[in-house]
C-alpha cells in the first residue's frame, strides 16, 4: 500500500460505485469515507479533516448542487475541493457544477485511472496553495521572530528577582478573580450539571496554574535543587480524568484525536507528589498538542510491578513534526527550544527543563525518541507507594452560609485597587452577614478607617496613591497617637517571596493571605481574629458523572464481543468495511437492550465517523477467533 495521501469523502447512492472507488482509493494510499445521502455527506464534511470530496449529483434526499452550495457557504468546509462525479453529460450540467463551486467534473462511466489522476491534480494544487501561504507567513514572521529573540535575550540578563516579583503579582491577581468567582458560583448550587462540570474544570485548571507559579517563578530554587517533594495520597484515575477534560477542548479545536490508555493493573490510589506529577503530564501533553495538527496525541499509563521499587510509566506520544536527532541531547536544558518550537513563537523553553527536574526529584527518569516528520514520544517513570483511598480525596465537607445569631455586626473594610477583587470579597462576605465597605486605594482606606472604625481590614499591598504597606503603617501610627485599640489588618498579597512577606509583618499587619485564596481561608481568618462563629451546610456532591479509568483496552473489546457472538461481529465488520452507515447503526441498535456497554462504546465511535476503528476492532477480533 502507498503511503497516506489524504482524506477523501465519496458521496454516491450507488453502492457499487462507492465500493469500487473506496477500494481503489484506499489501495492508492487515501483514507476514505463514504456517504449515500446528502445529509450524511454534510455531517461527514462538517466533522473535519477532509482533503477532497467526490460528489454525485443525483441523490435520494438532495442534489449534489445543493450540497456543494451549502458547503461553500460554511467557513469550516468552504475550502474543500469538490469534484463532481455524474452520469449527466450536458454542458449546462457541467457549467452549473462549476458555478456552485466545483473544481472538476468527471462523467460516468469513468476510468479509474482518470479519477485518480484528477484527484492527485486537485490535491497537488491545494498543497501548493497551502505551501505558498505558509511561506508568505514565514517570511512575514522572520523579522518579528528575530526581534523577539533579541528582546528575550536582553530581558533574561536583567535582575531576575524584580522580574519574578512582578510576574508573581501579575499572574496571581487575575487568578484571584478566576478562582474566587468560580468558588462563588460553585457555592450557590444553582448551576446545571454541564455548568457545574465547566466550573470544576476552570477551578482545577486555575489551581494547577497557581501550583505552577509557586514552583517555577523562583527559578533559583529549581537551579539550586531545593524544591521539596510533597508526597500525599492521590486518586490517580481522578487526576487522569481531569487532564483528559482539560485537553479535550484543545484537541477538538485543532482537529486532533486525544487518547488516554490506562492499563487495568495501574492502581487507582498511590502516594506521590500530585502537583509535580500533574505539572509533568500537562507540560508533555501541552507540547504534544501544541505541535500536532490534524493528528493524534496519546497518553499511555502502565504498571511495572517487577521493578524495584515498583513504578508507573507514563508515555506521551504525538504525530507532530518531530525533533531532529542533533537537537535531542539539549532538549531538557532551560531556555532551549527546538527549531519547531522557535517557529511556533510560543513558550519560553522552560517546560521540558522543569519536567526533567521534577521527574528526577520524584525518583524517576525521562527519555525522548523522535523522528522528523513522524512524531515524538516522551517516556518517564516514577516510583510510588500504595495510597490510602480514604485520605486521597479528603477535603472540607462544609461551607459557611451565615454568621451564627447573637453576634455583633462585624465591620469589614476591603481595600483593593482592582474592582473584581473588591467585588469578590463583597460577594463572599456580605451574604454571610458581615457589614462590608470598600476602598480602591490606601488614602481612601485611611479616611474610611477614621470615620467608620472597622473591626478588620483586608488590605491589598500594591495600590495607587498610597499603597497598602504605607497605609498600614500610617494607621498604626495614628492608633498609637490617639491611644486606640489596634484594628486587625490582614494583608492581601500576590507575592510569593519571603522578603515581601517579612516586610508586610514589619509595617504592622497582623497576618497576610496570598492571592488567589480559597473562601474558607477568609472565613477561618475572621474566626481567628474576630471570634466569628458560623452556620455551616454540607458542600453538595459534584453533579458531574466521572468517567472511569482504565480506558477501553483490547481486553474490553474482546470480552464484550464474545458476548454477542461471531456472526453479529462479522456483520458489523462487513458493514463498516463497506461504509454502510445505516447498516452499522442498525446493528448497534440491535444489541442495545441486551449489551448496553458495548452499544454505548460503538455508538461513540459511530457518532465520531470512526467506521475505520470499528472495522479494525472487529477485524482483529475475527482474526483471533479460532
From TrEMBL:
SMART domains per UniProt: HATPase_c (SM00387), HisKA (SM00388), REC (SM00448)
PROSITE patterns hit by this protein: HIS_KIN, RESPONSE_REGULATORY
Keyword Cytoplasm (UniProt): no
InterPro entries the record matches: CheY-like_superfamily (IPR011006), HATPase_C_sf (IPR036890), HATPase_dom (IPR003594), His_kinase_dom (IPR005467), HisK_dim/P_dom (IPR003661), HisK_dim/P_sf (IPR036097), Sig_transdc_His_kin-like_C (IPR004358), Sig_transdc_resp-reg_receiver (IPR001789)
Catalytic activity: ATP + protein L-histidine = ADP + protein N-phospho-L-histidine
Domain Histidine kinase, chain residue ranges per copy: 166-386
SUPFAM superfamilies to which the protein is assigned, alphabetical: ATPase domain of HSP90 chaperone/DNA topoisomerase II/histidine kinase (SSF55874), CheY-like (SSF52172), Homodimeric domain of signal transducing histidine kinase (SSF47384)
Modified residues (4-aspartylphosphate): 56, 460
Pfam families: HATPase_c, HisKA, Response_reg
Domain of life: Bacteria
Keywords: Coiled coil, Kinase, Phosphoprotein, Transferase, Two-component regulatory system
Coiled-coil regions, chain positions: 118-166
EC numbers on record: 2.7.13.3
Sequence ranges assigned to domain Response regulatory in this UniProt record: 7-123, 411-530
Protein name: histidine kinase
Organism name: Roseofilum halophilum BLCC-M91
Amino acid at each position: 500500500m502507498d503511503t497516506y495521501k489524504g482524506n477523501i469523502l465519496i458521496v454516491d447512492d450507488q453502492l457499487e460505485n462507492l465500493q469500487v472507488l473506496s477500494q481503489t482509493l484506499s489501495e492508492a494510499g487515501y483514507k476514505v469515507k463514504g456517504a449515500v445521502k446528502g445529509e450524511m455527506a454534510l455531517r461527514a464534511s462538517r466533522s473535519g479533516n477532509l482533503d477532497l470530496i467526490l460528489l454525485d449529483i443525483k441523490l435520494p434526499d438532495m442534489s449534489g448542487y445543493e450540497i456543494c452550495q451549502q458547503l461553500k457557504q460554511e467557513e469550516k468546509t468552504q475550502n474543500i475541493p469538490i469534484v463532481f462525479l455524474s452520469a449527466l453529460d450536458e454542458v449546462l450540467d457541467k457549467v452549473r457544477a462549476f458555478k456552485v463551486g466545483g473544481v472538476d467534473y468527471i462523467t460516468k462511466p469513468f476510468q479509474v485511472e482518470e479519477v485518480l489522476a484528477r484527484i492527485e491534480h486537485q490535491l497537488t494544487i491545494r498543497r501548493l496553495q497551502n505551501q505558498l501561504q505558509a511561506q508568505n507567513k514565514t517570511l512575514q514572521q522572520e523579522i518579528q521572530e528575530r526581534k523577539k529573540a533579541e528582546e528575550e535575550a536582553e530581558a533574561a540578563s536583567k535582575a531576575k528577582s524584580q522580574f519574578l516579583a512582578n510576574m508573581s503579582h501579575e499572574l496571581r491577581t487575575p487568578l484571584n478573580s478566576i478562582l474566587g468567582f468560580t468558588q462563588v458560583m460553585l457555592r450557590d448550587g444553582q448551576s446545571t450539571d454541564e455548568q457545574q462540570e465547566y466550573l470544576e474544570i476552570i477551578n482545577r485548571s486555575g489551581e494547577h496554574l497557581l501550583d505552577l507559579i509557586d514552583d517555577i517563578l523562583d527559578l533559583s530554587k529549581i537551579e539550586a535543587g531545593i524544591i521539596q517533594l510533597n508526597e500525599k495520597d492521590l486518586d490517580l484515575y481522578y487526576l487522569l480524568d481531569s487532564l483528559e477534560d482539560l485537553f479535550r477542548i484543545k484537541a477538538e479545536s485543532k482537529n486532533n484525536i486525544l487518547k488516554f490508555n490506562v492499563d487495568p493493573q495501574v492502581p487507582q490510589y498511590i502516594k506521590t507528589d500530585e502537583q509535580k506529577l500533574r505539572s509533568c503530564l500537562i507540560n508533555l501533553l501541552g507540547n504534544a498538542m501544541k505541535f500536532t495538527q490534524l493528528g493524534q496525541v496519546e497518553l499511555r499509563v502502565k504498571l511495572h510491578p517487577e521493578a524495584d521499587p515498583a513504578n508507573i510509566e507514563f508515555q506521551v506520544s504525538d504525530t507532530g513534526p518531530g525533533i531532529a536527532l542533533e537537537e535531542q541531547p539539549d532538549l531538557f536544558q532551560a531556555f532551549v527550544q527546538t527549531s519547531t518550537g522557535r517557529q511556533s513563537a510560543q513558550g519560553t523553553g522552560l517546560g521540558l527543563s522543569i519536567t526533567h527536574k521534577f521527574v528526577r526529584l520524584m525518583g524517576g527518569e525521562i527519555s525522548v525518541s523522535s523522528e522528523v516528520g513522524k512524531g515524538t514520544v516522551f517516556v518517564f517513570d516514577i516510583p510510588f507507594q500504595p495510597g490510602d483511598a480514604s485520605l486521597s480525596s479528603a477535603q472540607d465537607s462544609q461551607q459557611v452560609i451565615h454568621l451564627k445569631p447573637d453576634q455583633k455586626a462585624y465591620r469589614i473594610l476591603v481595600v483593593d485597587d482592582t474592582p473584581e477583587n473588591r467585588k469578590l470579597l463583597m460577594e463572599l462576605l456580605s451574604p454571610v452577614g458581615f457589614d462590608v465597605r470598600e476602598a480602591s486605594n490606601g488614602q481612601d482606606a485611611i479616611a474610611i478607617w477614621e470615620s467608620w472604625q472597622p473591626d478588620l481590614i483586608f488590605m491589598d499591598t500594591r495600590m495607587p496613591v498610597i499603597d497598602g504597606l504605607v497605609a498600614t503603617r500610617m494607621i498604626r501610627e495614628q492608633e498609637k497617637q490617639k491611644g486606640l485599640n489596634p484594628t486587625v489588618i490582614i494583608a492581601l498579597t500576590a507575592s510569593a517571596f519571603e522578603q515581601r512577606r517579612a516586610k508586610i509583618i514589619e509595617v504592622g499587619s497582623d497576618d497576610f493571605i496570598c492571592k488567589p485564596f480559597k473562601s474558607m481561608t477568609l472565613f477561618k481568618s475572621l474566626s481567628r481574629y474576630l471570634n466569628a462563629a458560623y452556620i455551616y451546610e454540607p458542600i453538595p456532591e459534584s453533579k458531574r458523572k466521572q468517567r472511569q479509568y482504565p480506558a477501553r483496552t483490547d481486553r474490553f473489546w474482546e470480552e464484550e464481543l464474545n458476548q454477542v457472538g461471531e456472526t453479529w461481529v462479522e456483520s458489523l465488520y462487513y458493514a463498516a468495511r463497506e461504509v454502510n452507515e445505516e447498516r452499522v447503526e442498525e446493528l448497534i441498535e440491535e444489541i442495545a437492550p441486551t449489551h448496553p456497554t458495548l452499544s454505548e462504546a460503538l455508538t461513540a465511535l459511530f457518532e465520531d465517523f470512526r467506521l475505520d476503528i470499528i472495522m479494525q476492532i472487529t477485524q482483529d477480533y475475527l482474526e483471533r477467533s479460532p
